[in-house]
Amino acid sequence: MAWSGRRAMLLTTTLLLAAALSESCDPGDLVQGCRVEGPNYCVCGLGCRTSFSYATREQCLTASRGERGDPCSSQPCRHHSYCTQIIADPGYQCFCDGTGYYGRHCELSE
């Protein structure tokens, strides 16, 4: 039996949802977007806001070509915090949750 039509759509949707949920983010943080996976390569779909930070494939491809570069590659976030790319300047945001630090770069002790 071939997978086509509604069955294929259901399987694809189920797999995308399972992948998104495996990133363990709150349901309110799930977005449809894109993320850079390498030079000139983006993955688009449903995922956590922190990972899928580009709203369109065009924005993601611009970043993947190095026109904006990966602002997290310089490791601006300190104390084992999490860096994610965002569209607004400076192009990244540090998530300090659970580190005991706060501030733009998670540099200030609580």
Observed structural traits:
alpha+beta; two-stranded antiparallel ribbon; 2 helices; 110 residues; single chain
Q: Tell me the helix content.
A: 10-25%
Residue windows where pLDDT falls under 50 for at least 5 positions = none
If you average the pLDDT, what whole number results? 80
Tell me about the biggest sheet?
Answer: 2 strands, antiparallel
By secondary-structure content and strand pairing, the structural class works out as alpha+beta
Integer-rounded radius of gyration: 16 Å
In DSSP terms (H or I, runs of 4 or more residues), the helix count works out at 2
| Spatial order of the strands forming the largest sheet | 1-2
Description of the structure:
By secondary structure, the protein is of the alpha+beta class. The protein is 24% helix and 26% strand. It has two helices and six strands; from the N terminus they run αββαββββ. A two-stranded antiparallel sheet has the order 1-2. It has a two-stranded antiparallel ribbon with strand order 3-4. β5 and β6 form a beta hairpin. The longest helix is centred in the N-terminal third of the chain and has 18 residues, at 5-22.
